Each structure stands twice: as structure tokens, then as C-alpha cells.
Sequence to fold (229 residues):
Amino acid sequence: DAGVIQSPRHEVTEMGQEVTLRCKPISGHNSLFWYRQTMMRGLELLIYFNNNVPIDDSGMPEDRFSAKMPNASFSTLKIQPSEPRDSAVYFCASSPTLISGNTIYFGEGSWLTVV
Amino acid sequence: AQSVSQHNHHVILSEAASLELGCNYSYGGTVNLFWYVQYPGQHLQLLLKYFSGDPLVKGIKGFEAEFIKSKFSFNLRKPSVQWSDTAEYFCAVTVNSGNTPLVFGKGTRLSVIA
Fold:
């Protein structure tokens, strides 16, 4: 079975540019999560969706960050404008439901460098 | 809100040494507990999880973890580490009621040297 698929795997962009990260969750999974990983702050939950609806976006750092899930098989995380401090690995993850205890399955991550 | 503390940032062990990574959580209710592993350059993978029942949970690759409710702890152990265990290990917790996502600790990097 295909796991969580993210693209791009690596992106280097200049400060001020728009960045769009994409995610395809595991088929049949109803919950989708966006995490950011940095050395300083570890793994942070940015936002999560259930049945395509955003449930909690309190982890989104600033208004420059936005996420959408137009359908059950696709989500985007957008940063506009990007800044060097946004450099991190962004993980998308999915889970069958939001019910506590469900295993979360992670994608390979998108390694973002903003110069 | 629940939180997770992993006190060791970086642990260095020789091959065949025993491993114990600490994890403490803060939440007074019933929780589900997880350990994830991230090998260099890879994504996070589930190592083991605790829901209920036997507080000693066995996972893949010889890892185990013990849930001690009185100490709010879920420490990860392995009797004899191998070089291939070099990775970052994340403890995570979710509340066993309602729909709440996993909250992760900051991770512990394990380096196993020959």
C-alpha cells in the first residue's frame, strides 16, 4: 500500500517567495496532520483536519502560513511570503480517524530551505 | 493540555550497551502512549504503543517500554543496542477521550558507536 506521499522532497527558495507543500494521505484515512520539525523546537503540530475540515490551526505560527484540504486525497501547506526562519522539515501525516490511540503514519517529509 | 518531556537530548552508547530513554507526560487522565523512531534522513515510524492492559509493551526490533502510571512515565528500553539503532526517538501522548492528536516530545538522539 502506498504511504503518505509528500512533494516536493526538497526545496530551496529565496526569501519572499511563495512555497507550496503538497500531501496525499493514505487512502481511506480521514484525519490529516501537518507537522514542522526543527532542531530548536522539535516536532510541532501546525494544523490538523478531519474529514477535510480544519479542526485546530492554533499551531500555525503566523498568518503567512495557510493550509487547505479541498478533498480527501489532497492537502496543501502554503507559506507566503517565506522567510529564512521557516527552514525546516515539514511532515504530513494521516490517520484512519481522530479517535485517540490511532496510529499516525508519516510521509517522508519536505525539506525546505529559505535563503 | 498534555505535554511530553524527554530529558535526554543526545545519548551516546557503545554497541551491546543497554538503553533506557526517559519519557514523562503531564496529564491526569487516561492516556495512550507511543514511541516513534526516525532513522537518519527518513520519516517517523511507529516503534510501539500502549493503550491499556499490560504496562510492559513490546515493540519492533527488540524495543520495549514500561508504563508507570504513578510516575507519569513511559520509558523506552532495549537490552543491547546495535549500530543500526542510531536514530532519533520520539515519545508521544494522546488523551484517551475525545478526538485529540498526538503531542510529541522534543526527541532524543541516540548515537551507537562501534
Notes: The two ends of chain B are 41 Å apart (CA to CA). The first strand of chain B starts at residue 3 and ends at 5. Chain B is about 0% helix and 55% strand. The mean pLDDT of chain B is 91.
